[in-house]
From TrEMBL:
PANTHER family (UniProt xref): OXIDOREDUCTASE, XANTHINE DEHYDROGENASE SUBUNIT C-RELATED
Keyword Magnesium: no
Domain FAD-binding PCMH-type: 1-220
Protein's organism: Nonomuraea diastatica
SMART domains: CO_deh_flav_C
GO molecular function, one term: FAD binding
Entry-linked InterPro entries: CO_DH_flav_C, CO_DH_flav_C_dom_sf, Diverse_Substr_Oxidored, FAD-bd_PCMH, FAD-bd_PCMH-like_sf, FAD-bd_PCMH_sub1, FAD-bd_PCMH_sub2, Mopterin_DH_FAD-bd
Protein known as: Xanthine dehydrogenase family protein subunit M
Keywords carried by this UniProt record: Oxidoreductase
Length: 325
């Protein structure tokens, strides 16, 4: 790694000016993903901009309800109020990594982490995401951990973040800022499917920073659950996961949010599963129907047909847990 300069700005405005001036500069915070990518030659820069110490590590409860979480709040956040109001968020974070990594990793970095596609992380393989136009080794190779929704003939990678799946179910908003101003981007619109430009993973523009994540107040957030299926019981990325939030009144599901992880290049919202739940009692039949609906439209690859069944099971497990709570 040939690192030539390291900037430590004293405020957000200074950081944005640096990033606006030098489009090759990369912002750095917890470094849990970026440093491995730089070390392995997957990403390169001559300029890192340290975001620590800029005041982005605070949690603000909003007067109208909801909460704003600074981009540099660590994934090991121990905020009881946050855990009670948004259990799915706490469960997703806890399932995501060891305590050591969670103590370093940040909310902003978690959302922006790169795919764990093996071929992306090994420069000797063709990868359109890493080197546009070079091909996709996964399509002809081992596709067992890859997408069953929203893939293209250019890239079949999945997004690895557990946190982002919870944020999708909570309809979070990403707060972004550059020298051109501030933007609020709903999580669903923030992540991009690969299409013909798999190297562009999100709507974040060059020179723009994530400054925070906003979670709206809702009647379903407090009744929420994250279920993750992985290849081993210690920390591993999800093969398939589900974040589910429901509001039940008088025994009937009034609102439902269902998001899936490990199945697409973005946290995948299943409106079909939500519709199967809404207006119905949370019975075994409804739960089974929601699981089936969540797998609607799946297009598995050669090696990942098992993910279709896993989708049904993680959704059923999450809903059954909520029904029995
Ligand atoms: Fe690269 Fe995407 Fe293909 Fe993986 S699936 S090798 S990330 S183009």
């Amino acid at each position: 790694m040939d690192l030539l300069s390291f900037s430590r700005p004293r405020g957000i405005d200074e950081a944005l000016r640096i990033l606006g001036r030098d489009r090759q500069a990369i912002p750095v915070a917890g470094s849990t993903d970026l440093v491995t990518l730089l070390r392995d030659g997957i990403r390169a820069t001559s300029h890192l901009v340290d975001l620590n110490g800029l005041g982005l590590d605070e949690i603000h409860w909003l007067p109208g309800g909801g909460v704003r979480i600074g981009a540099l709040v660590r994934n090991a956040v121990a905020d009881t109020r946050l855990r009670r109001a948004y259990p799915v968020l706490a469960e997703a974070l806890r399932s995501g990594a060891s305590p050591q990594i969670r103590n370093r990793a940040t909310f902003g970095g978690n959302v922006l982490q790169q795919t764990r596609c093996t071929y992306y992380r090994l420069p000797e393989f063709a990868c359109n995401r890493r080197s546009p136009g070079s091909g996709c080794a996964a399509i002809q190779g081992d596709s067992s951990r890859h997408a069953i929704f929203g893939a293209s003939n250019q890239c079949v990678a999945v997004h690895p973040s557990d946190l982002s799946v919870a944020l999708q179910a909570l309809e979070a908003v990403v707060l972004a800022q550059s020298t051109a101003g501030r933007r609020r981007i709903p999580v669903d619109a923030f992540f991009r499917l690969p299409g013909t430009t798999p190297h562009v993973a999100s709507e974040l523009r060059p020179g723009e920073l994530i400054t925070g994540i906003e979670l709206p107040a809702s009647d379903h957030a407090a009744t929420s659950r994250y279920v993750k299926f992985r290849e081993r019981t210690s920390y591993a990325f999800a093969l398939v996961s589900a974040a589910v939030a429901i509001e039940v009144r008088d025994g009937v599901v009034r609102t439902a949010r269902v998001a899936l992880g490990g199945v697409a290049a973005k946290p995948w919202r299943s409106t079909a599963a939500e519709q199967a739940l809404t207006g119905n009692r949370l019975t075994e039949e409804t739960i089974t129907a929601a699981g089936e609906a969540a797998a609607d439209g799946a297009r598995p690859l050669r090696h990942n047909k098992h993910k279709v069944e896993l989708v049904k099971r993680v959704v059923r497990t999450a809903l059954t847990d909520l029904e029995q709570a």
